[in-house]
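[#protein-structures] MJ: dropping Cyclin-H1-1 here for a structure pass
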Amino acid sequence: MALYGESTQKRCWTFTADAVRELRSSAREVVIHRVLSQLEAGSDAAAAVDGGDDRDRDVKMRHRESLDGNRCVVLEKVLTEREEMALRWTHEMRIMRICKAYNLPTVVGATAITYFKRFYLRVSVMEFAPFVVALSSLYAALKVEEINVDAAKLVEFVLEREQEFELPQLLQGSVPLSADTILNAELTFLEQIDFHLICYLPYSSLRTAKKELEAFVKNAGACDKLWKAAYDVFNTSVLYSDLILLSTPGKIALALLWFCSCLPHVQEGLEDLDLNGAVRAFCRSTLERSSALSSAASMAEDALLAKEQEIERLVAAINTIDREDVGNRTSKEEAWRLEVKRYAIENKENNPLSEQYQQMRSDEKTKLDHLRREKQKKQREKRDHEFAELLGAPAHSIPEATGSVDMDISVKKRKTLF
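AK: finished. structure tokens for Cyclin-H1-1:
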């Protein structure tokens, strides 16, 4: 694996908070434009049918007024940014529940959730079915982590525990989930994340920081307790936030240790140790080494100050996430309401679970089969023509080459020879 500084994660998948908001807002605008275009196309067709006489002007005027009303209707129908976030969170949590039930390593779920977040940066959940994308993310993570679970087994396991995983119910116009659902969506999924499958998560940085912190504070028990708390906070809250899109794994790890050093249950039994002070000093020491390596001497102090401020911002963000998310998760009923609302305006051609998608695939297969037959026919005609030129006979007089003809010729030859 390449160093983080040379990775696609740093170059292509690390953003500012404003950039993330802008990408998601643009994706939502695409959906609004698509739905409005569909309504306008229908209204234009209706206006064309109703027009044709002196009433054309009045008809068109009413048509345009109707379009203005349609814009308001569309904005009410599409998911709000907060509703999209809630729906994404629901599917991210489902990914981790599936991993735990299957006894998969935590890193598999974290990697899959990272893929899921990347996928929905540039497209909305109203364009691609999030349930299919969630399973595609998990399937890709299993491959990357070299865990042998094929698509059929994964789908079978998920369907067997439908109630436990609170799977979205099949809506009108849907087809059952199967292994082909994931396999057919695989290329689209990989294209959307630019085939960038290497993920850097804070787990490795936390393990390294724990070892160095033990030498720094001379208290292995306190460090182990702190590391477990940081690991737990990341897996239960930070992983489902946007922080993994906003900062480096190393800085997130330091921020987690800093944040957890203030937690009462971590400080319990360590009254004789200023754990928070020790962790802050450790973070500064680590950042000093990093700044000295990456900056000239004249710039090192400025670089150090900037990194310390970033760590403090991350600590504040983790505190907000941890405090807000504990009791504000989306309920099963609310998730189902959002799924129904999303399904009503989704792009069915992008959903492998829709009848429209299946029909489109069938039409494409029929077209490809026709093109293949035409190509084979032309190849046969070309061979016949070349063979006719070789023998000096008209092409139509050359018998079509088949297995049975070849066998008849060989039999005649054997009779002649013997």
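MJ: nice. The chain has 19 helices and no strands.
AK: one more thing. Residues 202-326 form one domain.
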